[in-house]
Amino acid sequence: MPMRRKLGPLQLAAVIFLTVSGGPYGLEPLFSYVGVNGALLLLLVTPLLWDVPTILTVLELNSMMPVTGGYYQWVKQALGVRWAFFEGWWTWLYTFCDLAIYPVLFVTYAAFFFPAAALYKIPICLCIIWASALLNIVGIVPVGKTSIVLSILVLTPFALTIGLVFARHGPLSVPAPALHDQQFSTLSLGLYTVMWNFIGWDNATTYAGEVARPVRSYFTSVCVAFLLVVSIYILATLAVHQSGIDTSTFEEGDFPRVGEILGGRWLGMLIAAGGMASTLGLYSAVLLSVSRVPKVMADDQLLPSWLCAEHRRWGTPYISIIASSIVVSILILFTFSDLVVMDIILYGAGLTLEFITLLVLRRKEPLRHRPFRIPLNNTGLLLMILLPIAVYSIALTGTLLTSEKMFYPIVLALAMLFSAGLAWRLVLWRNPRLGSDALG
User: In angstroms, rounded to a whole number, what is the distance separating the alpha carbons of residues 192 and 341?
Assistant: First the structure.
């Protein structure tokens, strides 16, 4: 039997920070969509409407069932095997899109040092994918320790940037949070960008069985991670505003230019290095979460049994990690913007099932012990979850109706959502008895 070591609160906070954010890297297109003023407004408002309800939902459900498989197990308990399969399938697909973004961003920041890196995008991305797979196979504790180091490397450049600006120019100039003559298409793309930079709170629960004192650890770690995420985004926005850079053509990978303006070449290089560390940490942390979901689904005979295989020495689901890495190796062919839109559409569908699960379990098991309980009744919970659903609907509608270049990624994402129905039929064909359990 392999020895299992568990994550502590500090390691968990670092892993959650990297799973959700990894710093402001990849936030750059937001400034070209809505400007600095609009960016600050969306960064202040969107977390309240999109993240806080999600975090509260995750904390309550995880306190009830702090088990490996996280959201999959919650949905299974509340809605039955069929909807649990849909939850796992959709989340698996969205996380593949999410993972594919990070190696591409790594190349973008590496090009600041080595412009020729862009010519070798595919080989570099494949090296990142398979090196991270190896790290995850070795075990969760090495991922946790690595996450602490990478989190420090991510936070340091922007902290130095703000400190440098303050030392040279005194108090920072703060832009007024506002939207000026904003088109629906750019607003929706801005929303997508902010939403993508704040997703993943539920992903961090898939390995709850591998966390020491999970209920307390998750509450503390999620609060710390949320404060870090919001703070680093606001600091990055202030740095962009202070630099006076033209944001109309800002795109992913442009934060080092802000560093060059404010502090010189050395600061630009430090921010670029932080971007490379961020993408590596994000990739490894997100792979850690997604690799646990196929295993629990395979345990329930919803996926082939060979996905259950654990490494004899490290006890990790190495087949699942390898399978995930193969899919991501294909998805790196898509563009950054395409992957972000596909990512959010798939994520929103799975998140909606988690909100429904919260309501159903409150109704079905009102007396069940909940170490963390949202201080709202059922009507209050319904109103709470309508907030992120409204944000999701606005972003999707605006992009679908006003942005022609995003039409095909949206259609592809919707096709991936509907693929869950076909996959479920294949599951029933292989194991008809699961049909009797489909309603829970």
Answer: 7
Task: Give the helix ranges, DSSP H, for 65-120.
Answer: 71-79, 81-113
- Cα 407 from chain centre: 23
Residue ranges per domain, the chain?
9-437
Residues 195 and 201: their CA atoms lie apart, in Å, by 12
pLDDT at 405: 73
Cβ-contact 331, 361 below 8 angstroms = no
Kindly report the CATH class assigned to 9-437: mainly alpha
Helix H, strand E, coil C: the string for 127-138 is HHHHHHHHHHHH
Tokens of 342: 């596909």
| Number of other residues whose CB lies within 10 A of the CB of residue 161 | 24
Rounded CA-CA distance 297/318 in Å is 15
How far, in Å, CA of 87 to CA of 81, rounded? 10
Taking only Cα atoms into account, the Rg of the chain, rounded to an integer number of angstroms, comes to 21
For 170, counting Cβ atoms within 10 Å of its Cβ (0-12 exposed, 13-18 middle, 19+ buried), the class is exposed
Reported for 106-109, long-range contacts at CB under 8 A and 24+ positions apart, including other chains, are 106/275, 106/276, 106/279, 106/280, 106/283, 108/252, 108/253, 108/275, 109/25, 109/253, 109/256, 109/272, 109/273, 109/275, 109/276, 109/279
Cβ–Cβ < 8 Å for 402, 188: yes
Task: Tell me if 311 sits within 8 A of 137, measured CB to CB.
Answer: yes
Distance CA 122, CA 199 (A): 26
Neighbours of 407 (CB within 10 A): 12
**With bands split at pLDDT 50, 70 and 90, how would you rate the model's confidence at 394?**
confident
Dihedral angle of Cα 425, 294, 278, 29, to the nearest 10 degrees: 10
Q: Which residue has the tokens 């563009």?
A: 335
Residue with tokens 């600006």: 165
Place of tokens 């090009």: 111
Mean pLDDT score of the chain, rounded to an integer? 83
Alpha-helical (H) ranges within 247-377 are 255-263, 265-290, 292-299, 318-331, 336-364
pLDDT (tens digit per residue) in 83-121: 999 998 998 888 888 888 888 888 888 988 888 888 888
Query: What residues form DSSP beta bridges with 211?
Result: 7
Long-range contacts of the stretch 119-122 (C-beta < 8 A, 24+): 121/332, 122/332
CA 365 – CA 78 distance, rounded (Å): 9
User: Considering the entire predicted model, what is its pTM?
Assistant: 0.84
Token pair 């053509």: residue: 249
